[in-house]
Design brief:
The protein is of the alpha+beta class. The protein is 31% helix and 26% strand. It contains 12 helices and 22 strands. The strands form 6 sheets. It has a 7-stranded antiparallel sheet. A 5-stranded parallel sheet has the order 7-2-1-11-21. It has a 3-stranded antiparallel sheet with strand order 3-6-5. The N and C termini lie close together (8 Å). 44% of the residues are buried.
């Protein structure tokens, strides 16, 4: 049994190791100069490889009902068993699972060691330009055209696992051709769009707030639908970033893709209700109304945020708090709870951690085999599934890679 795995990312390596353990002769075809490069950047270099709170509700897809049955076949406990079997020690932090050494390189190393031990052949620096069924072999197997610096060559495999990933993180997204390869077999696809990515905003005042990190609530609205997240917000020169923004970005990205009306609001005091904040604000002025507005806001929010909000309300930093009208004071206070920003776009595929879109889940079986082409399997970001931050996307990679590798290695 010869199996070709196209793509040496997380799901591709998991598929190759699993298929080789089942006795198949496996070859990974990787376009980059080495396998697993994206793993090194996950979890801020610490590699959040899974999450104990695994649920299909942590994922997005055009066919969400298909996610649960697939995850049920290989979940968090199975992933821990897989990596512990490779010699990797793990630890949990707030539900996220990491290598005990908190180095993403350790995850990549144990996978590389396993590939070597299982005698998986790895061909790097090669781009797959075409796949055809092996008509010269009585319609059995596949012929794969590979482009390298030295020219073009053809490889023959009994089965193929497409683990090409998505456009996320690529310097040249247009060079990713996994979707084209899938399309060659008539599989229905949703075009990729950036997810887990920063949002770009129109307002010029972001330059004055750049570099601020603070706890905040972020709400995104599009044509009557509303999504909200809390967490550490990062303000940049071009807009907003941070975990809550990344969690919401796929909704914003998809809304912009479909030319929907999009709005967003920031809550710089997420632990207080509007009533609590209003009462506190007025009480604060009674107690320290003799202070300047600069002193009045000190300790409430970051000075850069306070400065922008006061300017928007035509209030000077040097103005005495008791001299500010109730209307102006409450207007400024309201902005801290309901700060509108205009989202004009998302950052490019290059900055995205993952992509939305991909081959529809209805196009594959629970074993990830293409319904329209026997012997062809799809994994990871090739499929129309993207998860929240917190290890869910890597869990999807391990789940689909191992299920596909196991199924592909079965006897023809």
């Amino acid at each position: 049994m010869k199996i070709g795995v196209i793509g040496g990312g997380a799901s591709g390596m998991a598929a190759a190791i699993t298929a080789a353990r089942c006795g198949a002769e496996v070859t990974i075809l990787e376009q980059n100069d080495r396998v697993g490069k994206k793993i090194l950047a996950t979890g801020n270099g610490k590699c959040n490889l899974s999450n104990v709170h695994l649920s299909d509700t942590c994922y997005h897809s055009g066919d969400p009902h298909r996610i649960g049955p697939i995850l049920h076949r290989f979940g968090t406990d199975d992933t821990l068993e897989f990596f512990h079997g490779l010699g990797l020690m793990t630890r949990e932090r707030n539900g996220g699972l990491y290598p005990a050494c908190e180095q993403a390189s350790a995850v990549l190393d144990v996978l590389r060691f396993a590939l070597e031990y299982q005698k998986v052949a790895i061909m790097t620096g090669c781009r797959v330009v075409q796949i055809k069924t092996g008509t010269e072999r009585k319609n059995e197997g596949f012929l794969v055209w590979i482009q390298k610096e030295g020219g073009q060559s053809i490889c023959a495999f009994d089965k193929i696992i497409l683990a090409c990933g998505s456009n996320a993180g690529l310097k040249r997204p247009e060079e990713e051709n996994g979707m084209e390869l899938a399309g060659g077999f008539g599989l229905r696809r949703i075009p990729f769009f950036p997810a887990l990515v920063q949002l770009r905003c129109r307002e010029t005042f972001f330059r004055a707030m750049a570099g601020v990190r603070c706890q905040a609530g972020v709400t995104v609205c599009a044509d009557g639908q509303t999504w909200k997240e809390n967490g550490e917000l990062q303000l940049t020169e071009y807009g907003i970033s941070g975990i809550p923004v990344l969690q919401l970005s796929r909704h914003a990205s998809r809304a912009l893709l479909h030319h929907k009306t999009l709005s967003a609001f920031l809550d710089f005091l997420p632990d207080l209700t509007e009533t609590e904040w209003k009462d506190m604000l007025l009480a604060r002025r009674k107690e320290i109304g003799f202070e300047t507005m600069e002193q009045f806001w000190t300790g409430t929010v970051h000075k850069k945020i306070a400065s922008v909000i006061l300017k928007l309300n035509c209030i000077s930093f040097h103005e005495i708090a008791r001299n500010v009208t109730n209307q102006k004071l409450l207007s400024a206070g309201n902005l801290l709870k309901h700060f509108p920003v205009t989202v004009t776009g998302v950052n490019s595929f290059t900055q995205a951690q993952v992509c939305g879109g991909g081959v529809r889940l209805t196009e594959v079986t629970d074993s990830l085999e293409a319904r329209k082409q026997k012997g062809l399997y799809l994994t990871g970001e090739m499929l129309d599934v993207d998860g929240r931050c917190g290890g869910y996307n890597l869990q999807w990679a391990w789940t689909t890679g191992i299920l596909a590798g196991r199924a592909a290695a079965e006897t023809i």
